[in-house]
Amino acid sequence: MIWDPCLTRAVAAELGARLGGARARALSFRRDAMAVVVHFRDATLVADLSPRRGVVVVEAPSEPGGEAEPLPAVLAGAEAVWDERVLVLRFRRVRGRKPNPGLILELATNRRNAVLAEGPELRVRKRLRTVKGRALRIGQPWVAPGEGPSARVRSEPDAAAWERLVDGLDEADARAALLAKVAYTSGLNVAGLVGARAPGAGFRRWRRMADGADAAPHLLRLGAGMQPYPWPLPGLGAEPVGSLLEAMAGIAAGDAESRTGGTVGREEAARHLASRHRRLKRRLKRLHAQLEKTGTANRLREEASLILSSLHLIEPGATRVTLPGFDDMPRMVELSPQHKPQEHANALFRRAARLERGAATLRDRIRDTQEDLARIATLRDRLRRGDLSDEEMEALEPPRPERPRSRRRPPTLPYRPHTSSGGLEIRVGRGARHNDDLTFRHSRPDDIWLHARHAAGAHVILRWTRPERPPAADLEEAAVLAANHSGARGAGTVPVDWTRRKWVRKPRGAPPGAVIPDRVQTVFVAPDAALAERLRSRPG
Question: What is the mean pLDDT of residues 323-349?
């Protein structure tokens, strides 16, 4: 793996977010394996600085070995040296009067090293190895590799200085000039900076990298293998990843698997179980938040009952009204001016019923997730004690399924096609973000547009170009599909508005799927879940 200043800074940011404030227990320098391990209470940081790997990964917590030295400290922060491949982890001691320690990781290829230093001036206390040409004397302040009288000087130019630097140079000379003079350029990203065709595009791309803006971690496909990087680079195949730390953990796990003939090692199993534990905790938190939202069902039912019991007090067209509550306390109720009070109350009852059905499903999902969490916690405890057999570790799923590297699938249509009993094509939108695409790009002006009235749902297009009204049976089937794919699918009868597609317009700045139809007519239908399958099975 190759490190450059951009990658180093992005990894420092991820480490600060992941481990900032974490309590450390011990630190060990493993000179035989060219690795440094920091044991935190809730995680293990491993910096593998061997020439073949060179990764920094966060693993599950582990017990320090006999070679580890105590490190009673808290990680105060992680930072990268400006325009250098150097990562500095600064700790704050929680007891004792010794100076605060710092762990320095020098990540330049073939010169990788680790230094344990102390105090604000970072005086060297221990080093992983001796590197030729690097003066890392014990007791002396640590000096960054790029500092000193013979160090190269690189700067951050403005747009004009950038153009003067590369003006008139061919691609090879422009690369050399940028690498020599411009900070945060490297052999990884310079080709994409020089190859930008639009005027000023190379500078803008470099400025984004120099600022570390809009990071989008990807795995780049290089000739030597997969390379994590904060952004995709032009001319290189890339696939998105959740984070750079996850990408490096995947690279390390792949190396371990290749060395063991596919057997899942204990470290990989620990990383996998820790990752699944984090995902399950996030899912459980999300499910509890969704369940909390369903608690409004009782309030909606009470409000609907209050409206129905006080119809004689509500003026036609009112948008809000104060009604005496069932506890004789006045209560403000919002109304829909487009609906009669009875219709508004019925809509509240339907919404409350949907929330109650959702709450029952969410409770089942919460129970299942809690059981999965308990099972993963048991496996992690057994793994720490060494009670998991090799067969059980091999049975664990890999941390991430390998993504197919075949060509991209063709784009999915924004609608599901159906055929009415009269042979007309009916297109049902796949969701809110696809509705606009269906209505304005996959229909003709005279087609029939349908949507369930006052309910979230799919846009439906009945293909029809004649000036007369479409056949009643085909129109009704299209309306049933619109009702099926709407929030009112649980009602006995659903009003469905329809008009010609040319009378539907999109307001400026409206959210996805929000449109305003004109010259609307309405048909009332009963939802039929079996109709979609019957119409889909018909030959087109």
Answer: 82
List pLDDT tens digits, range 260-316: 333 345 666 777 788 888 889 999 998 888 888 777 877 888 888 888 888 888 878
Q: Which helix (H) or strand (E) holds 238?
A: strand 238-240
Residue 260: per-residue pLDDT = 37
pLDDT of the residue at 262? 39
Asked if 471 and 441 count as a contact pair (C-beta separation under 8 A), the reply is no
Q: How far is CA 158 from CA 155, 162, 163, 327, 466, in A?
A: 10, 6, 9, 70, 61
As given in the structure block, the two tokens for residue 403 are 């993504």
**Gap between the Cα atoms of 242 and 246, Å rounded:** 7
**3-state helix vs strand vs coil in the chain, percent to 5:** 35, 25, 40
Task: State the Cα–Cα distance between residues 177 and 175, nearest whole angstrom.
Answer: 5
Q: What tens digit of pLDDT does each residue of 104-132 get? A: 999 988 789 999 999 999 999 999 888 77
Q: How many helices (H) and strands (E) does the chain have?
A: 13, 22
- Amino acid at the residue 326: F
Q: Phi/psi at 221 (nearest 5 deg)? A: -95, 105
**pTM for the full predicted model:** 0.49
- Decide which of 391 and 272 is more confident: 272
Look at residues 248, 226, 262, 249 and name the one whose alpha carbon lies nearest to residue 396: 262
Cα–Cα distances (Å) from 59 to 7, 88, 409, 497, in that order, read 20, 19, 34, 56
Q: Token pair for residue 417?
A: 């096609």
* Residue 505: strand, helix, or coil: strand
The Cα–Cα gap between 461 and 457 comes to 13
